[in-house]
Amino acid sequence: MAFRHLNCSPSPIHSLRLLGRRSLLALLGIVVGSASIIALLNIGRSAADESIRAFNDLGTDTLVVSFPNSPQNKRPVPSTLNTDTLKQAVPAIVHIAPITIHSARVSLNGQIAEATLVGTTTDLAPALGLKISEGRFLSDFDHRETFAVVGARVARDLGAKGNPLKVGDLLRIENYLFQVIGIAQSLPTSSLMPVAIDESVILPIEACAACDHLRRLAA
After folding, report:
1. What is the DSSP letter of 113?
2. Residue 77 lies inside a defined structural domain of this protein
3. How many domains does the chain have?
4. Rounded mean pLDDT of 27-31?
5. How confident is the model at residue 110 (pLDDT cuts 50, 70, 90)?
6. Is residue 66 domain-resident?
7. Segments in 20-96 forming alpha helices (H)
8. Residue 204 near residue 138 (C-beta atoms within 8 A)
9. pLDDT, tens digit (0-9, with 9 covering 90-100), for 139-158
């Protein structure tokens, strides 16, 4: 005896034809719902990444030590900092950079900008995550050189129309001429960052000390 197999289940296309608009609305709801879930997941992931980045930028692994100078404090501020000895004493320190901060007027070809002079060493760049857009940062061989790394905002203020600041230009700071060896990328500030890089001109710490000494003698 032969048996004939009958397929009684309707095809999907046939079902869609029978249900008409309700099928189309159901499919549209599924598509919109799936797209919304994917969008929410992507937004949540982006927000989480941004929150983590902002939290890290606050300096969660950064320690700032200052030497306040006041009439009540009779102890003199140290003129040098032996960073190698400090790294040996505290092995957990990855980067350490002494800084001195002064304000000054910087000029180039008639353009004038108010800037913060930051005297420091080569370790400041990795400590702050500073990147250079042109040229280079200070090196271990620049201790007594009149070199300067210029922050993004100061570089814009000193650049004339059609003649932007460039590596090799000579900046006038106080009574010194400093050669530009690098221009820093814009770096957002945070509450624990000791300096605003965009507003600064970064010098070897010995050269910055010389500028401050000259200003005190002239005052």
Report:
1. E
2. no
3. 2
4. 78
5. confident
6. no
7. 21-57, 83-89
8. yes
9. 988 887 889 999 999 999 89
